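Dear support,

I submitted the protein below through the web form. The confirmation email said the job was done, but the results page showed an empty box. After a refresh the structure appeared. I'm attaching both so you can tell me whether what I see now is the final result or a partial one.
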Amino acid sequence: MSDKTVKLTNMSPDITKFQNDIRAKYAIANQTAKKGQILFVGSSLMEIFPIEKFQQEQDLGLDKIIYNRGVRATTTADLLEHMVH
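What the results page shows now:
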């Protein structure tokens, strides 16, 4: 979590642990992700949005893979910090 977020929010340690756990899961998944595809990021609304399921079950007319990397309680500062890692 970024220092800016810590100053702006008082997050429960449980949420912080969840964020770290899901980011670790994404880090593993990212090792096999194809470059040049579509990436969805954001907070809880994006995290629960089943875009990958839609793509598997329906023809969305795309020739790209969509990856969902939403993490609940994420701020823009958090997102920017994790993009460089």
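Response: this is the final, complete result; the empty box was a page-load delay. Helices lie at 3-8, 13-30, 44-48, 51-57, 76-83.
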